[in-house]
Amino acid sequence: MKRIYLLRHAKSSWDDVALDDFQRPLNARGRKAAKRMARHFTEHSIRPNMVLCSAALRTRSTYELLEPVLQGVPVSFEDGIYEASRSDLLHRLQRLDGHLNSVLLIGHNPGLEKLALALCGGHGDHAGLERLEAKYPTGALTILDSSVPHWPELDANKCTLVDFIRPKDLDPTDDDD
Q1: Which helix (H) or strand (E) holds 52?
Q2: Peptide bond before 110: cis, by omega within 30 degrees of 0?
Q3: Please, are residues 5 and 141 in contact by the beta-carbon 8 Å criterion?
Q4: Among residues 11, 18, 97, 140, which is most buried (max CB within 10 A)?
């Protein structure tokens, strides 16, 4: 069994119009959302075998706020995840090392949303599917399980949606910035 976590970067800032899209930082709301998600990772013992993260600043910053709960998990920052299509992201997952059973992919829309919808193909948690189909907001996490034994076999409709968690679904207790 393989478990896939797909995390869209937290909310970014558009304040500095001179910044290239790749260099946009998180805004205050995004930092709070990423911290909430880090608490969720801790509370639910989410610990993937590897992290694949877009090299864009907002995804790296999202990862950095999760990193304290992921200490020791190998991470790969990859330019190719930025602006990746659904098929690009799928091919990246299909190339994972065989010894890995779980992965956290931190990326961007629209590729991440399209990948999540394609992988689960409408199978799994009904309420989560409704939320996912309605909108994949910044900071949201998709959890998918697949019975494929090897990553190269991963494809559309080969996963079940376990959960779809948005930052607004999480307890804001102890939000600080």
Answers
A1: strand 50-54
A2: yes
A3: yes
A4: 140
CA distance 53 to 81: 7
Nearest to 143 by CA among 44, 54, 77: 44
Compute the half-sphere exposure of residue 59: CA atoms within 13 Å on the CB side of its CA: 27
- For 67, other C-beta atoms within 10 Å of its C-beta total 14
> What does the alpha-carbon distance between residue 10 and residue 40 come to, in Å, rounded to a whole number?
14
Query: 158: buried, middle or exposed (CB in 10 Å: 19+, 13-18, 0-12)?
Result: middle
Architecture of domain 2-14+22-169: 3-Layer(aba) Sandwich (3.40)
d(CA 20, CA 37): 26
Q: Which two tokens stand for residue 84?
A: 């990746």
Q: pTM for this one? A: 0.94
Q: Quickly state the pLDDT bin for 171 (edges 50, 70, 90).
A: confident
Q: What are 18-71's pLDDT values in tens digits?
A: 788 898 899 999 999 999 999 999 999 999 999 999 999 999 999 999 999 999
